Fold this sequence. Notes:
globular
Amino acid sequence: MIRRSQPEKEIMDESLPSRVECWTCSNGLVVFCVDTESDRMFLECEECMAGRWAPPREGEQEPGFLTIDLLTRPATLAEIQASGWEHLIRSVLDT
Length: 95
C-alpha cells in the first residue's frame, strides 16, 4: 500500500481568468498558472504567452517573460487564495 504524506491537490481543467490586462499585448486573456518544475504560480497571457511572477503595479514597466518553454498547469483556487491574489480573479460580474 502506498501512503501519501501530503493530500492530493485539486486538479483544474481550465485556467481561472484574472482581471489583469496583459502588460504586453493589451488584448489577451490573462490567467493563473503554475510552473510545474518550480511549483511557482504566475500570470500568463493566453494571446502572446507573456508571463509575470507577480501582478503588475500601476506605472510599472517591467515586461515580464515568455512562457513558451515552461511546463505549466492551471492554478487551483486554493493556490490563488494562498498567494493573496484572489482579488484578481475575474467574476461573471466583471464582464
